[in-house]
Design brief:
CATH topology of the largest domain: Cobalt-precorrin-4 Transmethylase, domain 1
Strand content: 15-25%
Low-confidence stretches: none
Largest sheet: 5 strands, parallel
Order of helices and strands: EHEHEEHEHEHEHEHHEHEEHEH
Oligomer: single chain
CATH architecture of the largest domain: 3-Layer(aba) Sandwich
Mean pLDDT: 95
Helix content: 25-40%
Number of helices: 11
Structural class: alpha/beta
Number of domains: 3
Shape: flat
CATH class of the largest domain: Alpha Beta
Distance between the termini: 63 Å
Length: about 325
């Protein structure tokens, strides 16, 4: 049997689950443990098929809108991406027992937008239309209160009601570079624009992109473990391409890999979006190990030790009382 060719694997660190994703999954799992199945979840709890399928097997039922849920006393969980204010209002009207798994960093953006609105500022939201996080943020305020800015071109052509009374917030899972460019255009055009005290792009998105920036220029190919509808995963793939990596692809499972593209590589970078579990990284490495002799190293961009607890009613000490 011929010897397998050598392949250097460079693992990006940090990668995979962030604190907000861990909290969201814990919310569903603890609700299942305390109240039993079913637990309804509005929208995918996080954008990852493996995670969603695992929770389905445990008794979670996923819906896109509350109207799909029958009258029930079962818990209804709102996903990590956040929801428009109309959703909890509808749940309350129907007497549904709701649990909010919105990432605290998304909630921070909601609060910032509400403060700007209270101060009568015209608000810009930098983000991607139709992404559930953006839909949720837009839905915190009355229609027309927030203008969506998706590109630098949008920032150049936007005409404010009052250029001296503007504010912006951003989606948490954007490309650092693209967002910096858009903010640069806005600040140049409107020097007095109010922005967040701390960047809205979350620490996990930032750190994962920084790790890819380190790895992408020194490998022949890079795989981002993540789903096509995961904003932060798509941004990681784009960052790898921008940094000059010849092959940068998204893969949900090892079965997604197009082996014809990886035939002649000597080195491979691997990272994972913030909603992708480490078990898939291991699965993909196992698939490469069948074809190559692996030499694994890790490149780190930051240490992460953030932790967001689930809401109080789901914590063990509350349940024990």
């Amino acid at each position: 049997m011929p010897a397998k060719p050598d392949l250097k694997i460079v693992l990006c660190s940090p990668r995979g689950f962030c604190a907000g994703v861990v909290r969201a999954i814990d919310t569903v799992e603890r609700a299942l443990a305390i109240y039993g199945a079913p637990v309804y979840v509005r929208h995918e709890i996080v954008h990852n098929k493996y995670v969603v399928d695992s929770l389905k097997k445990k008794g979670a039922i996923f819906v896109e809108e509350l109207v799909e849920i029958p009258d029930t006393t079962a818990p209804v969980v709102f996903s990590a991406h956040g929801v428009p204010k109309s959703v909890p209002a509808e749940a309350e009207t129907r007497n549904l027992f709701s649990l909010d798994a919105t990432c605290p960093l998304v909630t921070k953006v909601h609060r910032e937008a509400a403060i700007h609105f209270k101060r009568d500022r015209e608000i810009l939201l930098i983000g991607h239309s139709h992404h559930p996080e953006v839909v949720g943020t837009l839905g915190q305020l009355p229609p027309g209160a927030v203008t969506l800015i998706e590109t630098a071109e949008d920032a150049k052509t936007f005409i404010p009601k009052d250029p001296n009374n503007l504010a912006f917030v951003t989606q948490t899972t954007l490309s650092i570079d693209d967002t910096a460019e858009i903010i640069g255009v806005l600040r140049q055009r409107f020097p007095d624009i109010n922005g967040p005290h701390k960047k809205d792009i979350c620490y996990a998105t930032t750190n994962r992109q920084l790790a890819v920036k380190k790895v992408a220029p020194v490998v022949d190919a890079l795989i981002v473990v993540g789903a096509p509808n995961s904003s932060n995963s798509q941004r990681l793939r784009e960052v790898a391409e921008r940094e000059g990596c010849p092959i940068a692809v998204l893969a949900q499972r090892a079965t997604d890999i197009d082996w014809t593209r990886f035939g002649n590589i000597k080195s491979l970078g691997i990272t994972a979006g913030a909603s992708a579990p480490e078990v898939i990284v291991e699965e993909i490495m196992d698939a490469f190990a069948e074809r190559y002799t692996l030499h694994v190293e890790t490149v780190s961009a930051a240490e992460e030790n953030e932790f967001f607890p689930v809401q109080r009613s789901l914590r063990p000490e509350s349940v024990a009382e």
